[in-house]
Each structure stands twice: as structure tokens, then as C-alpha cells.
Amino acid sequence: MSERKVLNKYYPPDFDPSKIPKLKLPKDRQYVVRLMAPFNMRCKTCGEYIYKGKKFNARKETVQNESYLGLPIFRFYIKCTRCLAEITFKTDPENTDYTMEHGATRNFQAEKLLEEEEKRVQKEREDEELNNPMKVLENRTKDSKLEMEVLENLQELKDLNQRQAHVDFEAMLRQHRLSEEERQRQEQEEDERETAALVEESRKRRLLEDSDSEEDTTPTQPPPALRPNPTAILDEQSPRAKRKAESWERSVGTLGSRPQLSGLVVKKTDLDTSIQRGGAPPLPGAMKNGQAAGPAPQTPSTSSLSQLGVYSDSEDSSGSN
To answer: What is the pLDDT of residues 142-193, one digit of tens each?
Structure first.
């Protein structure tokens, strides 16, 4: 392993370098090299953009019959990354650059074109001045005129800077800050007024909606009913009792129109009470003479219907006698 690190090689005593055969390679032979795109370009076949710095495995060859001050010019062959079309470009030692040769167009070379145009104009002017002295005078007059215009513009710029030097920038900034604060304050006041107006409007709308809802949901109170008379129920009779009383009045008559009948009813009541007590019934003559015909006090427990029933019993008994 240590032999590969030595600097000197062993040559035998009978070594003759002239006896080593030389390879005869063609002058336009090609090498495969690894390089990066020297400028931005666009493929003419598919329109793919190839940006500066993109790496390629390119073929390199020496251009025949072309050189600059003894320096050879090399040509490189690359392929488009999209359509695999062949693109070639060469070295340009005169301008320290590369030139596009085939398969693509160079992009973003406006600065280079401008420099070339300036060089061309300068060369044409020198050729004209060399053969025409009047053209030299005319060009000098134009140059002096242009120089005076440039000086005038420069003086105007200096005067403008002098005028601006006396300006109090702090006062200007302070005034600007005050105006900004005033504008913000006015905007805030306007926002507050608008907010208050919106709140007031929403409150009024809510009050109106609440009043409308109360009017819709409040039930109408019925008028107070008249309080009935507590004794009215005594005057009312059932339909059956009314029909019985009407039939009785049609057949016999009212009780008040015949006082004799009322006396009989009273006597019948007295007779029943005396029988229940075990006493002797009164004589019929006494009832006829009316000795005991006076109306007896009615007990509060007896009703008009019970009296009608008793009266009907007395009539039946009198008819049977």
C-alpha cells in the first residue's frame, strides 16, 4: 500500500523512451466532460428553458481553423432536457464569453447587445472623423453643447439641494404627525356617532317589536259578570215541578183563590199531628164551624211542594167520605 504514495518511480537501466509507440489520435477528437450551462437559453425545438448553471454531460471538441491570438476555440454539444435535441455553443476568448451556435437562442443578453451597439457607434464616429475634418468640428460642438447642458442640470440639482437644506424636517414631521392624529380622532368620533345612531335605532326597533308582541299576546278580558242573587235559586223550579204546578192550577185552581181549601190543608195537618201524638181526632162539626180554622203557623221545614201533597191527600179523603 505504501508504493502508491511514492513520488519517484523506478526506471530500469535499459529504459529508452523513444522506443515507446505514440498514439496517432485525430485532431478533431471529442471528449466527454461535465459542465454547466454558461447562460440562459431556450430550445428552438420544444421551447424548453435551460437556465444558467444547469449541469450537463457534454461532448467537447477543438474547432478547426479557428483561434484567437494562438488560443484554441472549443465547441460543446449538449442535449435538451425535454426533447433531447442537440444544442451547440463555442468559447469566445475575445470577449471572455460564450457564443450560441445551434439549437437554441440566448436569453437576457440586452446588456451585451447594448455594449456592442455602443462600440459600433464609436467605431463609426472614429471612421468619419478620420476622413472628414468638418465632422470632427461638428462632433466637438455637439459634445460641448451636451456638456453645458449637463453642467446646467447639475447646477439646478445643487440649488435644489441648497433649498432643501434650509427646510426644517423635524417641523414637517411634527406637523404631519399632528395632522394624522387629528384625522384619526375625527374618524374615531365619526365611528362613535355612527355606532350610537345604530344602537339607538336598534333599541327603538326592539321597543316597537316588543310593544307589537304585547298587543298581540294580551288576551281580551271578558266583562265582569253580574253576581247572582243568593235567593234566586229558591225561586227557580225544576221543569218537572213547573209542569206539575201548571196542571194542578188548571184542574183545581190556585191556592190563594180558595181560602177554604187552605183551611182544609191546615186542618189536615193538625189532624195528622194529633193522631201521631195519640189524641182523639177533632170533630167534623168543629171543622165546619171554623173554630179551629185559623191558619196554623207553618214550620220553616215544610215547603210548598209538601203542602201541595198534603192538600191532595185531604181532597181524596173528603171525596171518599
So the answer is: 999 999 999 999 999 988 888 776 767 788 889 999 999 999 999 999 999 9
Q: What is the mean pLDDT of residues 77-82?
A: 94
Place of cell 447562460: 39
Q: How far apart are CA 66 and CA 90, in angstroms?
A: 11
Nearest to 31 by CA among 73, 77, 69, 70: 77
DSSP state of 22: P
Q: How far, in Å, CA of 84 to CA of 61, rounded?
A: 20
Cα-Cα end-to-end distance for the chain: 175
The C-alpha cell that represents 8 in the structure block: 519517484
Whether 39 contacts 52, CB under 8 Å: yes
107 and 38 Cβ atoms separated by less than 8 Å: no
Residues 6+ apart with CB under 8 A from 104: 41, 42, 43, 44, 50, 80, 87
Element (H, E) at 167: none
On whether the CB atoms of residues 76 and 46 are closer than 8 A, the answer is: no
CB 54 within 8 A of CB 36: yes
Identify the weakest region by mean pLDDT among 116-120, 127-131, 138-142, 290-294. 290-294
Contact assessment for residue 82 and residue 54, using Cβ atoms and an 8 Å cutoff? no
**Residue 240: beta bridge partners?**
none
Q: Which three cell numbers stand for residue 172?
A: 414637517
Measure the CA–CA gap between 214 and 235, rounded to whole angstroms. 46
Global pTM value: 0.37
